[in-house]
Amino acid sequence: MNSRLERIQQSLENALQPSLCELRDDSAAHKGHAGAASGAGHYSVTIISEKFEGLNRISRHRLVYDAVGDLMHTEIHALVIQALSPSETPK
Fold first, then answer.
1. Best label site of 15, 18, 29, 52, fewest CB within 10 Å?
2. Please, what is the end-to-end C-alpha distance for the chain in angstroms?
């Protein structure tokens, strides 16, 4: 895992204490894209956290964006989010 992925992962884990946090770097699929020129990456995350319980999709995404904070301006160009509460996951 590179240091950028580690910083993003750590930020998500610190803020949301997830039971699952799968972060993927999709930047290679976006090579040549305008966002790639700035050096920021394209990522996807699947995250399961009790903090999402009872929240709608927009509120969950806000929590994720708040967790990565300033990284959205420097390290992340795009972030695809799948945010679930534990009650929404198959047992």
1. 29
2. 29
Give the distance, in angstroms, between the CA of residue 70 and the centroid of all CA atoms in the same chain. 13
Integer-rounded Cα Rg, in Å, for the chain is 13
User: pLDDT tens digits, residue range 9-35?
Assistant: 999 999 999 999 999 999 876 566 555
In three state form, how does the secondary structure of 22-65 look?
EEEECHHHHCCCHHHHCCCEEEEEEEECHHHCCCCHHHHHHHHH
The closest alpha carbon to 51, from 38, 41, 64, 39, belongs to 64
Crossing angle for the helix pair 57-68 and 3-16, to the nearest 10 degrees = 130
Q: What is the pTM of this model?
A: 0.85
The alpha carbon of 88 is separated from its chain's Cα centroid by a whole number of angstroms, namely: 18
